[in-house]
Amino acid sequence: MGRGPSIENRKNAEDAKKAKTFTKFIREITMAARAGGGDPAGNPRLRTAIDKALHNNMTRDTVERAVKRGTGEGGGQAVEEVRYEGYGPGGVAILVDCMTDNTTRTVAEVRHAFSKQGGNLGSSGSVAFQFAETGEIIFDIREEPALEEKILELALDGGADDVQSEDGFVDVLTSPANFETVKAKLEAAGLKPIEAEVVMRPSNRVAVAGEAAETLQALLDWLEELDDVQEVYHNADLPAAS
């Protein structure tokens, strides 16, 4: 009878995934500190990046080293932010945000992923107009559905643009400028989000099913695995995983 992967192999895979996630956090903290300074109190992007890293059990020492690297105290190679835009199977719009020290390598890897999975890389601006930069603060209220009214009241009072609820989750939407204010107001009331960040949110969703959905998911997974990729955004309405 066949056996699944050993505990050691599973642990190694989990460690590798954790290391990749931490690398993304470090790059985001470094770029945020470089762009807006090393003081989280005056740099909302840096504050959000640090909060996310600490929430995922990154040590404060690692965070501080990333901040110093961003402010020029820690040395290291120069890294720049770059965004690629394209279309995947089913006409799905895809944004790929990267941080890289070699754009020639990065664009070649991203283009290869698109071409192998039935998509194509477009020019700058070909896709981005279908997305808007939006603050998202998401709560899981499946065990406490009565919290929905409290979240709604506090969020709108704090300056949120909209509050959407579905299947036991509440999604608070804000402008990037109001994101920190709304998040702080909700957390001050003892409400802990499962996710809170500024994302590129699509204006409309495209329904994708069958083989197109499978190929699209393969493309998204491929892109997520690339070392230089920070975030992948798309406007697909994919079927729920079975």
Structure characterization notes:
- This protein is an alpha+beta fold and 242 residues long.
- It folds into 2 domains: 64 residues, Integrase, N-terminal zinc-binding domain (Arc Repressor Mutant, subunit A, Orthogonal Bundle); 163 residues, Alpha-Beta Plaits (2-Layer Sandwich), CATH 3.30.70.
- A 4-stranded antiparallel beta sheet has the order 3-1-2-9. It has a 4-stranded antiparallel beta sheet with strand order 5-6-4-7. The protein has a two-stranded parallel sheet with strand order 8-10.
- Strand 1 and strand 2 form a beta hairpin.
- The longest helix has 30 residues.
- The N terminus is likely disordered.
The name CATH uses for the topology of the largest domain is: Alpha-Beta Plaits
Mean pLDDT reading: 87
Largest β sheet strand count, sense and barrel closure: 4 strands, antiparallel
| Number of E strands | 10
